[in-house]
């Protein structure tokens, strides 16, 4: 499969060693020419689209069939042995704008007999097999969370926890040949000292570590846990001590918090120390001086690592995540909780003193830019978290004075939703769900913003022939669209937690259907889940497509998904003319559609925890 990359004119260098001529990782938006070419015709298998993992016993069960027929057709549900179990007629849905396919939908929600190997046949065409049953998502929850241990920096990845295929030496510690993260200089002109910024998680297919993206990711892991403490009926045991694949299991602390702490300690190291210029701010990021080649196992990276200029956005990510960490660790490790709170308060004060140090969109040599020109959302999020943890009115005032407060469309944008660049919603969700000192009326207001946003996402799901709760601006799918689907699902799931209204739950489950195969490409975007799953995502170690001695991505890794922008050479070559939800290819070098990253797996882990908690569809609900 190297040919795809070569055809796209990439210089790969030696494939098994760190390549000297590094592959330019992130071509910027829309650069290059658009070739006049017919729309691509990918192999999409059966036209009958279902959730390839399955349907909860008491949940909605819907699918979509691509067909030129405009009159209703007959659908037939069969058990694994071929016996017919149910049938009905499809509902014509016209042309789906996200795929430009003529489609019809079918609904077999009434079937509640558990079983494996079910299929749906329409017009002589059979779907991929699926299960009907309870607790379909337990392994997805632990696999999606294991992603974070797999991608830890500065620690050996242990075969006892991940198996021999995925074990590897520690990356970016002090050992040769690379220069490690324990003694890192700044980029020229940024600082004249060196810092220990070891630990944390690698961001993605690259081995950069970015405070901006680390912040939302660790916050969503902590929230997956915090939800189990604040939502009646939610089960935290599955995230508890001894339940996940982390080396700290058995230490008396919930395993998910152990994983979060690995990143938190790194984020704390990224804070500019007392006595230095911009003290209290956070460096925006640390990564290689130049892009490393493909593949490069983390311990074989020979590039110099560098710290990049502090930014207001990074500082507020640190403040928000550290404030949350302070309250969650209080009963497990008061010293660490106090250290987190001190860092959070210091970061807030530094951001207030330097509110406009904005990370540039063009700083993308050797690592992603994570440029962010508007930081009102980060101020809102950090203020909310600090207020929840401390009860201090100064932070409440910052929340109420923010123009984002009471603006549902700004907190939870209709298309994109929450993301690394749009974090205010994280604060609003926590204000709505975590005990805090808002008055009852203020709390009701925040909750109604969450349910209003959820109503919009539920309407988007109902309107889509594929049930996806995502309606991006101008219909264009964006980089990491699958994470946007998931972040909208988090808002829906929170609304379900708050109100217990089934339609919110249904829209979350429809989102799962979309991600796991009920979509225009018949693609499950999660490695190891579903017959037609993504397994060649862009990653420098999990690079099996380029070097068969290396593994595929570990099970539970979420591909970024369709991206209308075609922002890499392979996507430009293979996908020119694609309909928005079809701008995806499972090719390792199609990084603008097929990368994996912490801020996409974090909402996957959150949602997997929520849907697993539903049991057969209705478990774990608060009484009344
Ligand atoms: O997720 C980021 C996406 O929103 C941006 O459009 C894109 C281009 O700037 O970058 C994405 O983030 C990448 C980061 O820059 C570097 N590590 C991998 C990230 C996922 O592709």
From TrEMBL:
PROSITE patterns: GH9_3 (PS00698). Residues 137-607 form the Glycoside hydrolase family domain. Gene3D superfamilies: 1.50.10.10, Immunoglobulins (2.60.40.10). Residues 86-100 have a biased composition (Polar residues). GO terms for molecular function: cellulase activity. Residues 44-127 form the Cellulase Ig-like domain. Residues 1-19 form the signal peptide. It catalyses: Endohydrolysis of (1->4)-beta-D-glucosidic linkages in cellulose, lichenin and cereal beta-D-glucans. It comes from the Bacteria. The active site is at residues 586, 595. One of its GO terms (biological process) is cellulose catabolic process. It holds the Pfam family Glyco_hydro_9. Residues 26-49, 80-100 are annotated as: Disordered. Belongs to the glycosyl hydrolase 9 (cellulase E) family. This is Endoglucanase. It comes from Streptomyces malaysiensis.
């Amino acid at each position: 499969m190297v040919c795809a990359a070569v055809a796209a004119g990439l210089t790969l260098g030696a494939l098994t060693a760190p390549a000297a001529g590094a592959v330019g990782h992130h071509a910027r938006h829309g650069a290059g020419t658009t070739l006049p070419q017919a729309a691509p015709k990918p192999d999409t298998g059966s036209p009958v689209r279902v959730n390839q993992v399955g349907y909860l016993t008491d949940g909605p069960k819907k699918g979509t069939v691509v067909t030129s027929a405009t009159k209703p057709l007959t659908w037939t549900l069969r058990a694994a042995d071929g016996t017919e179990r149910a049938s009905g007629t499809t509902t014509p849905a016209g042309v789906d704008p996200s795929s430009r396919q003529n489609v019809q939908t079918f609904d077999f929600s009434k079937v509640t007999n558990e079983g494996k190997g079910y299929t749906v046949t329409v017009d002589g065409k059979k779907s991929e097999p699926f299960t009907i049953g309870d607790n379909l998502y337990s392994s997805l929850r632990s696999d999606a969370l294991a992603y974070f241990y797999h991608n830890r920096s500065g620690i050996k990845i242990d075969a006892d926890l991940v198996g021999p295929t995925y074990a590897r030496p520690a990356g970016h510690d002090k050992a040769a040949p690379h220069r490690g993260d324990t003694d890192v200089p700044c980029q020229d002109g940024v600082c004249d000292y060196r810092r220990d910024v070891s630990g944390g998680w690698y961001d993605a297919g690259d081995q950069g570590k970015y405070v901006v993206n680390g912040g939302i990711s660790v916050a969503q892991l902590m929230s997956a846990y915090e939800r189990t403490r604040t939502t009646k009926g939610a089960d935290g045991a599955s995230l508890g001590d001894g339940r996940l694949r982390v080396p700290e299991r058995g230490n008396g602390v919930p395993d998910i918090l152990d994983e979060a702490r690995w990143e938190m300690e790194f984020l704390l190291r990224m804070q500019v120390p007392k006595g230095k210029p911009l003290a209290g701010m956070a460096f925006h990021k640390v990564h290689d001086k130049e892009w490393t080649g493909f593949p490069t196992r983390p311990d074989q990276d020979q590039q110099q690592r560098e710290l990049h200029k502090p930014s207001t956005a990074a500082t507020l990510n640190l403040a928000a995540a550290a404030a949350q960490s302070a309250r969650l660790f209080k009963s497990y490790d008061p010293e660490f909780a106090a250290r987190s709170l001190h860092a959070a308060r210091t970061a807030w004060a530094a951001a207030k003193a330097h509110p406009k140090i904005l990370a540039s969109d063009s700083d993308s040599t050797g690592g992603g830019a994570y440029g962010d020109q508007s930081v009102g959302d980060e101020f809102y999020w950090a203020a909310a978290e600090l207020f929840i943890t401390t009860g201090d009115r100064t932070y409440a005032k910052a929340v109420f004075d923010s123009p984002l407060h009471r603006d549902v469309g700004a907190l939870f944008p209709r298309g994109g939703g929450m993301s690394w660049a749009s974090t205010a919603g994280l604060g609003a969700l926590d204000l709505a769900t975590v005990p805090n000192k808002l008055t009852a009326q203020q709390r009701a207001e925040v909750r109604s913003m969450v349910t209003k946003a959820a109503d919009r996402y539920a309407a988007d799901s109902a309107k889509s022939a594929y049930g996806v709760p995502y309606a991006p601006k101008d219909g264009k799918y964006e980089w990491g669209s699958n994470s946007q689907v998931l972040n909208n699902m988090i808002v829906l799931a929170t609304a379900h937690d708050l109100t217990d209204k089934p339609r919110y739950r249904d829209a979350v489950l429809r989102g799962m259907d979309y991600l796991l195969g009920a979509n225009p490409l018949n693609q499950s975007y999660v490695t190891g889940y579903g017959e037609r799953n993504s397994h060649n995502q862009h990653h420098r170690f999990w690079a099996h497509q380029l070097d068969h001695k290396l593994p595929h991505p570990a099970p539970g890794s979420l591909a970024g998904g369709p991206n209308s922008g075609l922002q890499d050479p392979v996507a430009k070559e293979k996908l020119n003319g694609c309909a928005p939800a079809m701008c995806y290819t499972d090719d390792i070098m199609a990084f603008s559609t097929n990368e994996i990253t912490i801020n996409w797996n974090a909402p996957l882990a959150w949602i997997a925890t929520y849907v697993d908690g539903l049991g057969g569809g209705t478990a774990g609900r608060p009484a009344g």
